[in-house]
Amino acid sequence: MSEYRLDRILHEEEILQLEGLLVPKFTSEFPNFSQWLEKAQEDIAKGNRFAIGMWREKLIATCIIKLTASGTAELKSFFIDPNFQHSGYGNDLYNETETQCRKAGVKRIISYIYTDETPMIEFMISKGFLISGKEDLYGNSRESYILSKTLSPEYFGDPYDWEELGEWYLQTRLKANKIIDHPLVDDRRFDKHMRLCIGDYSIDALIEIKDQRVDLDSVLVLYEKCNRSNFHLPIFVAREFTERAERYARNNAVIVFTSNDIAQHLGWRPPVICEGTPKGMIVSIKPDYQQRLLDGDSPYFYVKGGSSGKFLTAGQILVFYTTAPEQCIRAYGKIRSVKVGTPHEIWDEYSTRLVLSEDEYFRFASIKKRILIIELSEIIDIDPIKEEELNTIISKKDRSGSYIDEDTLNKILK
């Protein structure tokens, strides 16, 4: 499969390219498709929908997603130019679409496909979709299958943030909802107040989350404070517990979870920051945004979605992986500071220093709850590290927002 660029559609010109790709295919199949696409383009421009694109000199494939308030994503116009079908592009396009949906907090994806479009139906079923209904949705005497897929949980926060990871674990494992951080019981503050719903009943849990080995005393305090309050259930999440702490928890109905429980749920073991302190991070960037940064003046500001990277510190290195068509590392920056905030907080404070226009920024941020901004004191050009050499240093899946250790950094900086 030839090289391509796969990314969110953010530029105005990229949004306009959707018309040339989709109208010839769908105008005859869906009533009023041109009007629908015009409205979809407006929604993408405003950040009310998002779209994924795949380019090989021109736009050859796309998928448009509409998010609902219930955490469901409607998958629309999943299409690949006929000249590029049956070459594996569909798998990559769908995988990226699902990844972006997961990052946006989507719990379920639904799609509508004509019942006679057998190849597309088989493709969606191969991705885990189930047929949940059949209906003439468009009033053209042509029935469509309603397909849906429930997404398994995936953690996209900072892997070193044990409190955030613990909260995510309780949300996905116990379906617990956070009520408030740091509730006060008597004279002591705990980490979380979370609520578990069982049918029509709700259980208020007092939560402690500690990135350490926990002994009896801490479990005892949680149990006693919970019993003297309006909370119903004590829950403790820690790296591990001493034997006597675990025994006390079992005998007193304190629910405890360890790093082994979280690793089984995640599919990978959470890192221990004291044993593997990162030396920097590698992030992906579009070639034109990379050039805008290089053409700017110090200090430079790079934004990314989510909170992964919040533990970067001054003096560490931010390595830029420039996406297709370049697909190389040709610059890195020296970190001065890092900040996490809501999309509007970051824009209000840093808008005049960003390489993104206001429209580009809020399209990017439309599916993000938190934005991380990294201030760089300088950016240094290096001889490009091309794809073939780069594959021996860091895998492709780890080039978009992953911490890197000293060995990896030294290989990049040589």
Shape: globular
**CATH C-level label of the largest domain:** Alpha Beta
**SSE-based structural type:** alpha+beta
CATH homologous superfamily label of the largest domain: Gcn5-related N-acetyltransferase (GNAT)
Radius of gyration: 24 Å
State the end-to-end CA separation. Answer: 31 Å
Question: What order do the strands of the largest sheet run in, or round the barrel if closed?
Answer: 1-2-3-4-5-7-6
The third-level CATH topology of the largest domain is: Aminopeptidase
What's the average pLDDT?
A: 92
Largest sheet geometry: 7 strands, mixed
Extract low-pLDDT stretches.
Answer: none
Helix content: 25-40%
How many alpha or pi helices?
13
E-strand count:
20
Q: Please name the CATH architecture of the largest domain.
A: 3-Layer(aba) Sandwich
How many domains make up the coordinates? 3
- Proportion of beta-strand residues: 25-35%
Q: Could you please describe the fold and organization of this structure?
A:
The chain is of the alpha+beta class. The chain folds into 3 domains: 5-150, Gcn5-related N-acetyltransferase (GNAT) (Aminopeptidase, 3-Layer(aba) Sandwich), CATH 3.40.630; 162-266, Trna Endonuclease, Chain: A, domain 1; 280-413, Archaeosine Trna-guanine Transglycosylase, Chain: A, domain 4 (Roll). The chain has helices spanning 12-26, 33-46, 89-103, 118-126, 162-174, 216-227, 243-251, 259-266, 287-295, 343-350, 358-365, 387-390, 406-413; strands at residues 5-8, 49-56, 58-67, 72-80, 108-114, 130-135, 144-150, 177-181, 184-185, 188-189, 192-198, 201-214, 233-241, 255-257, 280-285, 300-305, 317-322, 328-341, 371-386, 402-404. The protein has a 7-stranded mixed beta sheet, with helices on both faces. A 6-stranded mixed beta sheet has the order 16-19-18-17-15-20. A 5-stranded mixed beta sheet has the order 8-11-12-13-14, sandwiched between helices. A hairpin with a 5-residue loop joins β17 and β18 (328-341). α1 (12-26) packs antiparallel against α2 and α6 packs parallel to α7. The protein is globular and about 70 Å long. The two termini are 31 Å apart. The relative contact order is 0.09.
